[in-house]
């Protein structure tokens, strides 16, 4: 496992505390779009117990609870969990949401506690994603299903492609990054399959999902680009070029889609996996 000094910004829970509002406003519409489709794949029933790992400010948990599912949502960011609880308190009577601050690599629920598990761009960020998946497998009931969402086809992640083009327009061609962002480690299907299988889960399917990320305007997105620690670090690294790069980014997007609502494409995989049925009694 990497030590704290080696963790990338998006892997540092405390940094997420400073991005709650902007994440919810800017990025959650995209993660929620993927969450809806992942939940559809799980085919949950009212009163099923679902654990949502890396729940953030609660987009996926709220969707699941609205379907009558009882959700146990965990995140390592204290302020994300505080916001999730605020939103859950406003839910009409349907499913229940319990939210806790928790390390997803050391879950506290007992073995075989949940009917299903969900993680939308959550467990894939963990310093030890394999350990996070093994913990998910542990707390699933035998026969329980997991839906894990990860990035794929990163060349189709339009936000990054447009930001790279804007940076090149201002600074000239840029060398490739020295380090791969942690959330892209499992973008290739065979690697993603291995992550799930090595946790003791039976991989049932890897489904490719494409969504359109809708935002108020190009300029609004430029103003809210620091919606996550990694994006904030990227913007800070631009230094004095930050304003011209983001202006070039917004101008190009306006030329293509106008000054009103814009939509960017993004592609993800949802890995659907089953915990094998076993006669061994649960531990803990």
How many helices in DSSP terms?
10
Would you tell me the overall average pLDDT? 93
Give the uncertain stretches in residue-range form.
1-5
* Strand-pairing-aware structural class: alpha/beta
- Fourth-tier CATH superfamily name of one domain: Vaccinia Virus protein VP39
Strand arrangement in the largest pleated sheet: 3-2-1-4-5-7-6
CATH architecture of one domain: 3-Layer(aba) Sandwich
Give the assembly state of these chains.
single chain
Helix content: 25-40%
- Stated plainly, the CATH topology of one domain is called Rossmann fold
Separation, N- and C-terminal Cα atoms? 25 Å
Largest sheet: 7 strands, mixed
Pattern of helices and strands: HHEHEHEEHEHHEHHHE
* Backbone CA Rg: 19 Å
Percent strand: 15-25%
Shape: globular
**Tell me, what is the CATH class of one domain?**
Alpha Beta
């Amino acid at each position: 496992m990497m030590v704290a000094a080696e963790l990338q910004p998006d892997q540092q829970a405390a940094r997420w505390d400073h991005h709650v509002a902007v994440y919810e406003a800017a990025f959650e519409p995209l993660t929620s779009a993927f969450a809806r489709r992942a939940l559809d794949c799980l085919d949950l029933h009212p009163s099923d117990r679902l654990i949502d790992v890396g729940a953030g400010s609660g987009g996926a948990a709220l969707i699941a609870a609205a379907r009558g599912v009882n959700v146990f949502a965990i995140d390592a960011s204290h302020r994300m969990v505080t916001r999730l609880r605020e939103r859950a308190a406003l839910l009409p009577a349907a499913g229940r949401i319990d939210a806790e601050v928790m390390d997803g690599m050391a879950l506290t629920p007992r073995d075989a506690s949940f009917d299903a598990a969900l993680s939308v761009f959550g467990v894939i960020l963990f310093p030890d994603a394999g350990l996070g998946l093994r913990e998910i497998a542990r707390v699933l009931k035998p026969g329980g299903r997991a839906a894990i969402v990860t990035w794929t086809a990163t060349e189709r992640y339009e936000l990054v492609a447009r930001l790279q083009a804007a940076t090149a327009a201002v600074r000239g061609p840029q060398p490739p990054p020295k380090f791969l962002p942690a959330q892209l480690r499992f973008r290739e299907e065979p690697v993603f399959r291995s992550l799930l299988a090595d946790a003791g889960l039976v991989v049932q399917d890897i489904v490719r999902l494409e969504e359109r990320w809708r935002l108020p305007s190009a300029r609004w997105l430029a103003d809210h680009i620091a919606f996550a620690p990694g994006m904030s670090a990227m913007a800070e690294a631009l230094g004095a070029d930050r304003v011209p790069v983001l202006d070039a980014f917004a101008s190009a997007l306006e030329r293509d889609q106008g000054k009103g609502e814009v939509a960017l494409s993004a592609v993800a995989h949802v890995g659907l996996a089953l915990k094998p049925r076993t006669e061994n009694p649960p531990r803990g």
